[in-house]
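Could you help me review a protein record that somebody else here produced? My question to you is simply how this chain folds and whether the tokens agree. Thanks in advance; the entry in question is below:
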Amino acid sequence: MRRRTVILFVASLVAGLLKTPKKHKELPNGKTDPRFFVGSWQYTDQENRLHHLTINPDLELIIDQKPVKGNVETINAYQLIFLDALGYHLIIKANEIGPVEFFDEADNVNYSLNKAN
């Protein structure tokens, strides 16, 4: 009787773990789905000005409705690194839910991101 209970418990645990949805979408080859970073966010700078940051499906970075010239350098489960035309990195950091922080290497400043309405 005890052995049967243990087997049922282990089977239930394994089934639960296999059915648990992943927050981060991963492609079959283990790479992060770039659409995870697509969306619009807001952040406030040191002078208390509100800015809008958008990443479109082509992974183009747009800040305050102005496209930022450059290219995506790296993308993984928790960050998207964009290299702008001047050679500075713009880094979008994420958690399991989505992007949460924006780092601007030119100003050496981190900004908290809030989902735009």
Q: What stands out?
A: Strands lie at 39-44, 50-55, 61-63, 66-67, 70-76, 79-84, 89-94, 99-104, 109-112, 114-115. The radius of gyration is 20 Å. DSSP finds one helix and ten strands in the chain. The chain has a mean pLDDT of 84.
